[in-house]
Amino acid sequence: MAFEYAPAPESRAIVDIAPSYGLFIDGEFVESSGGDLNKTVSPATEEVLAEYTQATVEDVDRAVKAARKAFEKWSALPGAERAKYLFRIARIIQERSRELAVLETLDNGKPIKETRDADLPLVAAHFFYYAGWADKLDHAGFGANPRPLGVAGQVIPWNFPLLMLAWKIAPALATGNTVVLKPAETTPLSALFFADICRQAGLPKGVVNIVTGDGRTGAALVAHPDVNKVAFTGSTAVGKEIARTVAGTAKKLTLELGGKGANIVFDDAPLDQAVEGIVNGIFFNQGQVCCAGSRLLVQESVQEELLDALKRRLSTLRLGDPLDKNTDIGAINSAEQLARITALAERGEAEGAERWSPACELPASGYWFAPTLFTNVTQAHTIAREEIFGPVLSVLTFRTPDEAVAKANNTQYGLSAGIWSEKGSRILAVANKLRAGVVWSNTFNKFDPTSPFGGYKESGFGREGGRHGLEAYLDV
Amino acid sequence: MSDRLSVFKTYKLYVGGKFPRSESGRVYEVTDSKNNWLANAPLSSRKDARDAVVAARKAFGGWSGATAYNRGQVLYRVAEMLEGRREQFAREVADAEGLSKSKAAAVVDATIDRWVWYAGWTDKIAQVTGGANPVAGPYFNLSSPEPTGVVAVVAPQESSFLGLVSVVAPVIATGNTAVVIASEKAPLPALSLGEVLATSDVPGGVVNVLSGRTAELAAPLAAHQDVNAIDLAGADEALAKELEIAAADNLKRVLRPQPVDYFETPGIDRMTAFLETKTVWHPTGSLGAGGSSY
């Protein structure tokens, strides 16, 4: 007999969301010079969680001025003192991790299982890691006494709101920069809560400034003449626009953009583990991951066996209330993103690929998309070329390792790839030939603060994480 | 003075290991600092630039796949070949830059030494910029630098030889291939360098040298979808901005112009500017009774 799961919701009582938020500038929440209030909703229910401020060009200017003013003292602080602030932040995040996990799940729609076990531990670890660098920069391989750049303008996406904040703010602060950060318009809340963590940590005012708003706010920040460094994670189209904006200036730029990662399964792969890796690769965070393994390349001889096992596994995934601890697949982040995923999946069908989803009931309200896989996909199909950023897997096949490599590299992107094989020399040979910044062999979607992350080609440039991640914020 | 009539050299491009004229059939007059005619150099076209990219792309697999030791020996061989042509280059540099004999000789010596410096880097840069990452889990995680691909190089306008080599050598030392736009006013040392590269075991297409109008050649290279990066060393402020905007179209890695004293020993930044970091994760498994586990 099959046992039903009883509901196991995580309590949201641990989070106290204010009805309305201003901008965090120079150490305090302030009102906008005239920007509107926007609403942020829970994607799982469409319930309005709070109102936040659309920062204007004047607000951005005020934030940059505050960061500039704070830079002098912050950059002159002994590294060991900056380190202790960052260690404090890491610890406070650990203390408040359940609250932040619930908040992130509410605002983003991703399962509590992921915010609790992946996002928040990685956020704290990132601050802890870069804290330790702050007084050791002389040993980082960039020469003696490397200098910070100044004010960093940082624009982050909605898929890992607090984790992307950590990836941006931790190395910037460790190296002595001050920051103005703009969270995504659909997920502003965890960044606003982070402002409170800065308060608790006693961080000097102006070192971290949070300006909320849509793309207009981001554009104003990127174009601000007194910003010395621009860091952006998001779409390739916006990344290119930013690269054009900073052209001809002295602003240092790092971009972490889209991907169309190939997950390559050879016939000698451990298939059960490969199935888990494929699921993790494309359904983690509803596939809203820039390094998702959105193209499955399977060797023809094991195609049938693998797809059978994969479909069986997908039928056991539980989609629903993101706050339920047993939920595997949460909500899509926004109506806009859902529309994009829906349109691309329809395009896949229209172009002749074969669509399959497990029997899966979608909740009546909120933004939902069933786990979907496409077979009979060719390299020319839109769903094999464009980043879908949703729970949609395109399956292609190959016969030889050379063909697998050629297909994997046949993309404008170059962020991630996966290799499944039991043969060590084959793994190394294939990994060597893949034009991608992160390669996972016999695993997928693993992240660590010590491990540099970033893309080749149109997936952007620069690395986040590890010793490499310091370079983006140093005058080297 | 002997009354023998000297033999002039026809300066040609260096593309794909061959020495073509510009497909356009155009040339332009190159003069010395006192405006005396030195030679006619090919006035390359956009088509020449595109052909050079094709050659550079074709050469990339072999050159990036060669062992670092092999690349080091090839670069060192370039220095050996240059050493034998010191006088020729000293003459060309003196003419090109209006330098005295002794100053030009010093420039050439520094240039040869620059090749030797970079030759020694080929099998060390990965150890300096890569390494194992101590991730919190049962994984072996290694970051390694890899060449970014085809790099367009706008060579310095003033330092026609030392500056040229100082920007080309770091690009190819790490396994990239290059399409080089020589100094517009003083392209002859660059074109002669092609003759040295051709006899130094550098595979054809690894370095391609174009002469002509910098702006005319740089624009199609900056916009080219199969070029991965661009070094703007020899572009003025207005051109550099224009090229950087064009380069954004396929997100080329861009090295902006900066003041450089080419006599100084360089750092590694001209190499790292055109390196990608690839990080590979491998499960370490365990040695339990069940054998490996993921």
Question: Can I get a quick summary?
Answer:
The complex is a heterodimer of chains A (476) and B (294). Chain A has helices at 57-76, 79-95, 97-108, 112-133, 161-174, 189-201, 215-223, 236-246, 271-283, 303-314, 335-350, 382-385, 401-409, 424-433, and strands at residues 23-25, 28-30, 37-41, 48-53, 151-155, 178-182, 208-210, 229-233, 252-256, 262-265, 295-299, 354-356, 372-375, 392-398, 416-420, 438-441, 460-461. By secondary structure, chain A is of the alpha/beta class.
Describe the protein in words.
The complex is a heterodimer of chains A (476) and B (294). With 476 residues, chain A is α/β, with parallel strands linked by helices. Chain A has helices spanning 57-76, 79-95, 97-108, 112-133, 161-174, 189-201, 215-223, 236-246, 271-283, 303-314, 335-350, 382-385, 401-409, 424-433, and strands spanning 23-25, 28-30, 37-41, 48-53, 151-155, 178-182, 208-210, 229-233, 252-256, 262-265, 295-299, 354-356, 372-375, 392-398, 416-420, 438-441, 460-461. In chain A, the strands form 4 sheets. Chain A has a 7-stranded mixed β-sheet with strand order 12-13-14-11-10-15-16, sandwiched between helices. In chain A, helix 2 (79-95) crosses helix 6 (189-201), helix 4 (112-133) packs parallel to helix 5 (161-174) and helix 9 packs across helix 10 (303-314). The mean pLDDT of chain A is 97. In chain B, helix 1 packs across helix 8 (214-223). The model of chain B has no long low-confidence stretch (mean pLDDT 96). In chain B, strand 6 (177-181), helix 7 (188-198) and strand 7 form a beta-alpha-beta unit. Chain B starts with 26 loop residues before the first strand and ends in an 11-residue tail after the last strand. Chain B has a 5-stranded parallel β-sheet with strand order 7-6-5-8-9, with helices on both faces. A 3-stranded antiparallel β-sheet of chain B has the order 3-4-10. In chain B, strands 1-2 form a two-stranded antiparallel sheet. Chain B has one domain (37-283): Aldehyde Dehydrogenase, Chain A, domain 1, CATH 3.40.605. With 294 residues, chain B is an alpha/beta fold. Chain B contains 10 helices and 10 strands. Chain B is globular, with a radius of gyration of 21 Å. At the A-B interface, helix 8, strand 16 and strand 17 of A face strand 4, helix 9 and strand 10 of B.
